[in-house]
Write a structure and sequence with these properties.
globular; 5-stranded antiparallel beta sheet; alpha+beta; Aminoglycoside 3'-phosphotransferase, Chain: A, domain 2; Phosphorylase Kinase, domain 1; 2 domains; 11 helices; 3-stranded antiparallel beta sheet
Amino acid sequence: MGAQRTADARPQIGEGLVRRLVDSQFSQWAGMELKLLDPAGSDHVIYRLGEELSVRLPRHSGAIGQARKELQWLPQLAPHLPLAIPVPVGVGEPDFGYPWPWAVSRWLDGEVVTVDALGDSPGAAVELARFLAALHGVAPEGNAGEALTGRPLSDRDRATRVAIAEVGGLFDAAAMTGLWDAALSAPGWGRSPVWFHGDFHTGNLLARDGRLSAVIDFGGLGVGDPACDLMIAFTLMSADSRAAFRDALGVDDATWLRGRGWALATGLNAYTHYAAVDPRVAAQTTRQITQALIG
């Protein structure tokens, strides 16, 4: 496999490659045990390295900026947040035919949160609201605003309408179109830009002993309208816990409506790309879409 690849090509990532990358670039961790984390999501291959570290390698070109982004910004955000987040300790360089930067971070113990475990928990919902309030309350500094400005919801208009047409026989097309039109028409974020996680859904939360412990995967980290982070209300929560979440976060009607739009758009995108090949994604995104329609 050559180092020069087309933008959409996906490198083959196995333990032998990861071993060579780690041992050659981070001699202090050479020879430490590697253990594949499976499933690890659609963006990265993840190996646990020893007991305290993880190695994350992008699967595709859309994820190649995450390693350096997290190394730059997460250490600045972590002290302000009430839940643990990844602590990057190094960024590796392309080598041995692997074409992109990759990351070594501190390992975070925990199990991926599930709807069955915490979906009905008002306490967990309030904890998540407090996390978002803390994140949104950290003032962006330096070049964060310029470098990480989020895309508006309207950028997803064409793709979302195509997806609505594609799945109209499975979900209520009229209801989806109505929600999408309303979300695009809602008043925009009228305050100063704030930090947002950008991919705040159930799969990026960890729990230990039945309680939330960490938030992971900050590839979507950005600055702007925080409505995108409200998707957690529709991927995880029941009606009662969602109400507790909204009350604790103090979300106004326009932001809530934009948040429903983000949940619909991202749910449709994942459903149309992955549901046919991954039953887990199919179930998760079906719930996300239907809960966004309920509101």
